[in-house]
Amino acid sequence: MSSKVIDLRSDTVTRPTAAMYAAMASAEVGDDVYGEDPTVNRLEQRAAEVFGREAAIFVPTGTMGNQIAIRLHTQHGQEVICESRSHVLDWEMAMLSAFSGCMPRTVAGDRGVLSWESIRKAISPKIYYRASTGLISLENTHNMAGGTVTPLPVLREIWQGAREAGLPVHLDGARVFNAATALGVSVAELTSGFDTVMFCLSKGLGAPVGSILVGSRAAIDRARIFRKALGGGMRQAGILAAAGLIALEEMPSRLGEDHANARLLAEAIAQCPAAEIDLTAVQTNIVIFSLKNNGDAAGFVAKLKAKSILSSAIGPHHVRLVTHYDANREDCDACAVALAELLR
């Protein structure tokens, strides 16, 4: 293996920037459970401003932010409508049921994108002997669909339909800044119709730890109760929030570089006879492709690793690559060459 490892398993593997390290070292801190950490307070205030909301809460993980939101909007025994490959369903340890006492009602989207018509059909009828629908949960970008983006007109139709049906809508916006970059709109506009939005600081934005949940003042006040219940009440968390502030302010503007690098990889893969890829689904920083003739994804990932490139097998025949700021253009060029060699 070469001396440098190119890690494309996820955009969660990024290391803090020099500015983040410096901010963390000099962060002003206090006890956040008492609401006394000034750096956390600044991060929450700024996140609320960026998203055009009344309030925000800093949480350790995106999973915690999503699960707090589900608990806010639902009652035990209700259903949550979500996409059939959504993160809240497949990657959050059944907490939708364990913590909120709800059952998922899954709907298959077109490349992970749900329409209002498909959601409307899944809403439970208002009869007492059926579990009622408590929440609609969307994901933008959609991780397991390959980083696909839900367009703003589709969202507006969902928001209107949900309002008419009297249902709240939550966004798992772990990579919502990637979605906004791809669409050329602000995150405030792209998320304006959601009751709550969770976004990650620790993915494309590059912070070492943390996510944010934004919403109304009343919702975020209640969210603090559920954050504490889940063990998310941190103390001198300003050390982490300092990096989060830099992630929020400085990193969204460079996400287009990651998208361009993902397109480079996708187009290289598309030229290879042993692979199959839907180029129209490569819209942000995630590349998912399949190996033809039932190729062994785990074996292919091992071969890439032998070339100092880390990737993920996300099924028997599917491989995922995720670009980020720690993998520059030169790294992605090298990866494209390695992919072409292995996929001849």
UniProtKB/TrEMBL annotation:
Residues bearing N6-(pyridoxal phosphate)lysine are: K203
One Pfam family matching this protein: Beta_elim_lyase
- Give the EC number(s) listed in the UniProt record: 4.1.2.5
Q: What class of enzyme is it?
A: lyase
Residues in Aromatic amino acid beta-eliminating lyase/threonine aldolase domain copies: 7-289
Gene Ontology biological-process annotations: glycine biosynthetic process; L-threonine catabolic process
Q: Which keywords are on file for this protein?
A: Lyase, Pyridoxal phosphate
Query: SUPFAM superfamilies this protein is in?
Result: PLP-dependent transferases (SSF53383)
What does the similarity note say? Belongs to the threonine aldolase family.
Quote the protein name from its UniProt record.
Answer: Threonine aldolase
